[in-house]
Amino acid sequence: MFVRIFTQPLLHFTLIAVAVFWLNAQFGADNAAPTKTIDISAAQLQQLRGNFVNTWRRPPSPGELEQLVEDFIQEEIYYREALALGLEQNDKAVRLRLRQKMQFVGESQAAPLDDVEEEAAVRRFYDAHRQNYQGNAQFAFSQLLIPPGADAGAALDKLNHQRPLDNTELQPLNLLPARMALSTAEQIDAVFGEDFHQQLLTLPAGQWRGPVNSPFGRHLVRLDQRVEAEEPVFANIQSLVKKDWQAMRRKEAEQQFYASLRQQYRVSLPAVRLASVR
Amino acid sequence: MKHFIVSTILVWLLPMLALASPQAGDEGSATSALDRYSPYANPTIPSRVYWGDTHVHTSLSLDARGFGLTLGPDEAFRFARGETVTTSHGVKARLRRPLDWLVIADHSDGMGAMNEIFDGNPKYTQNPLIQGWHDRLTQGGEIAKKAVVEVFNRFSGGDLPPEFDDPAFTKNVWADYLRVAEKYNEPGNFTTLIGYEWTSTPGGNNLHRNVIYRDGADRAARMLPFTTAESVNPEDLWRWMAHYEELTGGNLIAIPHNGNMSNGTMFPVEKNPASGKPLTTGYAQARKRWEPLYEVTQIKGDAEAHPLLSPNDEFADFETWDESNMGPVLKKPEMIQYEYAREALKNGLSLENRFGSNPYKFGMIGSTDTHTGMSAAEEENFFGKHSLLEPEPERWKHLMAKLGEVEMISWKTSASGYTGVWATENTREAIFDALARKEVYATSGSRILVRFFGGWQYHKGDENLSAFAESAYNRGVPMGADLPKKTKGDAAPSFIVSAMKDPYGANLDRVQIIKGWLDASGATRERIYNVAWAGERRLDSEGKLPSLGSTVNVDEATWTDDIGAPALATVWSDPDFDPAEKAFYYARVIEIPTPRWTAYDRKRFAVEMAKEVPMTLQERAYTSPIWYTPEN
Fold first, then answer.
1. Are the Cβ atoms of B496 and A189 closer than 8 angstroms?
2. Do A64 and B122 touch (CB under 8 A)?
3. String of DSSP letters for chain A
4. pLDDT digits (tens), chain A, 278 positions
5. Which of A206, B42, B112, B534 could form a disulfide with B173 if both were Cys (CB 3.0 to 4.6 A apart)?
6. Is A67 on the interface with B (CB under 8 A)?
7. Considering only CA atoms, which of B198, B213, B236, B186 is closest in space to residue B82?
8. What is the nearest CA distance from A179 to chain B, expressed in angstroms?
9. For residues B528 and B517, is the Cβ–Cβ distance under 8 A?
């Protein structure tokens, strides 16, 4: 009779069930009960104090420090309990934050270079992106506003023969500057209207030309000086170029990092593609 | 031979000696000729206008931060100098053209403190009142709005919790702000002027003043800004300013604004509102000394003229706010005469007779008073009064503020204004000096160019001059100044006025000269003269000019320059001049109609708005006046 107990399916099932629960307890995911001990180290205390000093530029009072510590303890307790409850799952904010952290991990994968290699790489980067570091072209010019109906050709003729125009040939009581010192396109257009500077681009220096149009009417213009966008001295902008190069490297490293991870995953999508779902 | 050698030497030597000995005249004139050799290094007369705003708030202001603004002084300067910034709502914003200078004038009461309340800084939240504010603010929505209003009321009433009164904290905030102002100050390119707003609002009556420094951080750091917790009386502010100048050797001016929200207390004529006692000579002198300017147009309405005071002025009712003070007290009609610029300029003439000083001898400027950190006064690029009124479909009908019974509705806010400064260069000193001498003018947001000169020697033929500025300065005075003394031979003053459109804006409709004077019986009078206009129009028997009509397509929010003119100018002489009567003259330039910011919102968001919401406006400029005083 004793033997018969061991052949009963009920016993077998009970033993299997116990085994399953035991295995789950040993190897099952996550939901382990959190440890109830919190050890705050001297370093953590220093960090709390340091954060306070950074913000308030004075050390915290004993009461304030106590409050900071209590606040930190609460944060730690809630953090552990939250994990125990699995609250981090399906939380968009948590997912975003962890994604961001992985991005940092990926960015830091870039192989380190020694100083010589780095300098060469920055140089190459600069050569490839020269146009981003150009200064602005500048123009100095003289201009005269002529009244509507005035004979521009005759006026130009006079000016180019060093004869000044008289008042009847000019817009009365004109407020626009007769002469603009070296100015960028943006500065010129701020005074004379949108894209006015474009009309200066084709002018030869030293000669009165026109009429050139603006919202104010017609201008006779003499380009006095043109300074091309300056090729900057590399030493002056080196740190800026290096920053841009580092940003590019980080981005490339992260992209490679993700690509290698992606390869390891198999993704299945529903049979009916979303695009065809109405 | 010896004789020959000696004489040869002498022949060569003597002239050398003569040349070597300095001639008294030569050396002097050589040096002075060198001093002024380069015509562009020592400009003596202003040859261009520099555009700016004297009144921008950032997240350092209690109320601005409370309404959700997260942009600080860095972003505000960067926006003004033409960079793209991202607003508190994640929208990219940029001016069409950079400004040349900017004053960030945050409220001195609790400057920087709202950031701390939002952050829940334990130092403040120890006070349960402040903790309560933090809790309500972080909830957002209506609860947060009410909390902001409560905080605002407390500080504008001078009733701050003691925690906000901490000099150490204020010192840090002030020092940080000064550091940023120095960082963005680039002489010749972009000027930052240091400033703050003293926010006196006794009983809800707006007596706010912006204090503006000529100085840099070194001097400005030596005294903390004056607050309303210390006093709400403008005379105390002027005392603080005098103390600052004495202590540091620096220079300040104060600029009041929003007389239209002062319920009759901005420009008193009989009694000093602070004491209830009659005005004194001391008051008149001090006000004249410290307040050379008035911010006549801004987001909370235009206060140059009011239709009740100027029933003959068809342009007087422009962006008019006349229902209340800042809250909760409603306006009574008898208050209005003490609130508007033109009336104050007139009353000032009479007060000058009484006190010997004209307390209302001010020039006029325009600013935004924006609480979004962005000096955006363009109609098509208007980001609102504060961060709860930044662009979105329903913003036209949101409340700007509600205090007691008083409601201020958003569609009434105005995309206004800017200040044009005629200065010799773009530096702190030159801009400040121009503000102090009033060679500045106000616009409602358009960058209209105007020159206005007055004198006794402008004559027929001057209107044909093209380059006239140097000659005008030599024979008369620019806007903001007093006419030169009249001599026996002079008949009537004449004025050169020249206006040119904003190259990114609309054509001009007309130029007017507005005269105010004190007649023989001691009464103040005013008259508007249309002096230059576009198109073939005739003055009627009353001197009025018909309207040009409008090219505005409201649905599309566009206009065309088929009407109006790009430039209007003339020389005008006063036909009604009486040498015995004090007077002032200023020019008002008016554009053809263009779409108002509400029309742009209507189109962009495809929303319908209530019938009373205006869709068009005529932008304008007001120059600072030129004064005439008879010889006694």
1. no
2. yes
3. -HHHHHH-HHHHHHHHHHHHHHHHHHH--S-PPPP------HHHHHHHHHHHHHHHSSPPPHHHHHHHHHHHHHHHHHHHHHHHTTTTTT-HHHHHHHHHHHHHHHHTTSPP--HHHHHHHHHHHHHHTGGGG----EEEEEEEEEPTT--HHHHHHHHHTT-PPPGGGS-TT--S-SEEEEEEHHHHHHHH-TTGGGGGTTPPBT-EEEEEEETTEEEEEEEEEEEPPP---HHHHHHHHHHHHHHHHHHHHHHHHHHHHHHT------SS-GGG--
4. 667 777 888 888 888 888 888 887 666 555 557 788 999 999 999 999 888 887 677 788 888 889 999 999 999 999 999 999 999 888 877 888 888 899 999 999 888 889 999 999 999 999 999 887 888 899 999 999 999 889 999 999 999 999 989 888 999 899 998 889 899 999 999 999 999 999 999 899 999 999 999 999 999 999 999 998 887 888 888 888 998 899 899 989 999 999 999 999 999 988 765 554 44
5. B112
6. yes
7. B186
8. 10
9. no
- Which tokens is A133 given? 């570091």
Q: Which residues, at least 6 apart from B269, have a Cβ–Cβ distance to it below 8 Å?
A: B279, B338, B347, B350, B351
Amino acid residing at B81:
R
Q: Which among A175, A187, A196, A197 is the top mutation candidate for probing chain B, defined by the most B β-carbons within 10 Å of its own β-carbon?
A: A175
What pTM value is reported for the model? 0.79
Among B547, B569, B371, B556, smallest CA distance to B453 is for: B569
ipTM given for this complex: 0.82
Residue type, B579: P
Of A172, A214, A215, which is closest to B463 when you measure between CB atoms?
Answer: A172
Spell out which residues of chain B touch residue A143, defining contact as CB-CB under 8 Å.
none
Distance, CA of B398 to CA of B388 (rounded, Å): 9
